[in-house]
Design a protein that fits this description.
This protein is an alpha+beta fold and about 150 residues long. It contains 4 helices and 6 strands; from the N terminus they run αββαβαβαββ. The two termini are about 50 Å apart.
Length: about 150
């Protein structure tokens, strides 16, 4: 009698049948006319659902946004060091947000920040695509790059 329909029965009859089999009477579609119920082991059903959800979660990939900060007067060695980190982030499949922070009078020299970001785009063009072009937000200039697939 596994998986077959019993037809339209009263609630009492359904409960009696479920008790005979030592199972639960579970309402599956309450909005249907008449409501649809199923005789099953509810604890086992919930356990299998949670197992399926865990398995699905295991196979999904979270996209992480890493951030690297520069200053307008970043020297060559520091630039190369940070570039290597950005390349590692991209190789791991993470998006990278590059921020240039301006302090005080440095706001007058936003073109230095644009130069650094355009150089960075050029240096990572083989492994990354520009997702958000450089733009000035307050005292920070940001650029978002994502790995090529």
């Amino acid at each position: 009698m596994e998986g077959e329909q019993l037809g339209i029965v009263s609630v009492e009859e359904g409960l009696r049948l479920a008790r005979e089999r030592e199972l639960d009477l579970v309402e599956v579609a309450p909005k249907a006319s008449p409501p649809v119920c199923r005789i099953m082991d509810y604890g086992k059903y919930k356990y299998e659902q949670s197992k399926r959800a865990k398995e699905a979660k295991k196979h999904q990939h979270m996209i992480v946004v890493k951030e690297m900060k520069f200053r307008p007067k970043t020297e060559e060695h520091d630039y190369q060091f940070k570039l290597k980190h950005i390349q590692t982030f991209l190789a791991d499949g993470n998006k990278t947000k590059v921020t240039i922070m301006f302090r005080g009078r440095e706001m007058l020299y936003t073109e230095l920040g644009k130069k650094i970001l355009s150089r960075l785009i050029e240096d990572t063009q083989e492994i990354a695509v520009v997702e958000q072009l450089p733009r000035l937000e307050g005292r920070n200039m940001t650029l978002v790059i994502a790995p090529k697939h």
